[in-house]
Amino acid sequence: MADYVRPKKHLGQHFLTDKSIAKDIVEAINPASKNLLEIGAGTGVLTQYILKNESLNFKIIEIDSESVSYLKQHYPKLTQQIIEADFLRFSLDDLFDENFSLIGNFPYNISNQILFKVYDYRQKIDEVVGMFQKEVAERIAAKPGSKTYGILSVLLQGYYDIEYLFTVSETVFNPPPKVKSGVIRLKRNQIEKLDCDEVLFKTLVKTAFNQRRKTLGNALKSMGAKQWPAEYDLLLSKRAEQLSVKDFVVLTNLASETISPH
């Protein structure tokens, strides 16, 4: 069994060494949560505080076999709750009987992919508390008009209330990353479904931000839009980062009536 876990660059592992920060991250989870999934527990710096809540139905997904061995040795009661798997490839459909929360010191190299998966499972994931590269954390929490506001900002803010909690120095990791980190919390809002075609909404948001220097009217021509009604000229003269989620919903409904079928 492993008594030490070597941080692996290809897995983006940077192990948090400051226990007070680990405690703060865990305490940011809603205490009423019944089900909690930790992604990439590593050496269990968050796990040790999660386990203090004995009423939690708690599971771990960890891709690193060395970390899995370490966790089973140091937390033997968790042996049946540790899933050795790649979170990005693992189906979350039957993981818990009810909705669940998500926590982790997320690897920077797959953080966007993790967040896209959260979006895909938005009807099952009630809350996320996680540490990301500071730039990513700020982007997710950014408001319209910010230069950091982007695709994931819009998609996630449609279904979650997002709060930037605090910044973490690069000096409290082994090995230290080259950038600062940021901890954010996503809480599921009351919107079950956006008032538009959600598949088209996602496509439109991606298209708009992939050509973010163009006005929306020009950016969306690639989607096959015909002539837009004049009353939407002001909206279409803006750029993607200037639009709120509600604006994108309006635009999606307009596009569904305007875009030529393929």
How does this model look, in words?
- The chain folds into two domains: 180 residues, Rossmann fold, CATH 3.40.50; 61 residues, rRNA adenine dimethylase, C-terminal domain (Helicase, Ruva Protein, domain 3).
- It has 262 residues and is of the alpha/beta class.
- It is elongated, with a radius of gyration of 20 Å.
- The model has no long low-confidence stretch (mean pLDDT 90).
- Helices cover 32% and strands 19% of the residues.
In this structure, how is the largest beta sheet organized? 7 strands, mixed
Name the structural class.
Answer: alpha/beta
**Mean pLDDT score, rounded?**
90
Number of helices: 10
Count of distinct strands: 9
In the sheet with the most strands, the strands line up as 4-3-2-5-6-9-7
Please tell me what the overall shape is: elongated
Query: What is the CATH top level name of the largest domain?
Result: Alpha Beta
- Proportion of helical residues: 25-40%
Taken as a percent bin, the fraction of beta residues is 15-25%
Find the CATH topology of the largest domain.
Rossmann fold
Fourth-tier CATH superfamily name of the largest domain: Vaccinia Virus protein VP39
CATH architecture of the largest domain: 3-Layer(aba) Sandwich
Q: What distance separates the N and C termini?
A: 57 Å
Low-confidence segments: none
| Number of self-contained structural domains | 2
H/E element sequence? EHEHEHEEHEHHEEEHHHH
Radius of gyration: 20 Å
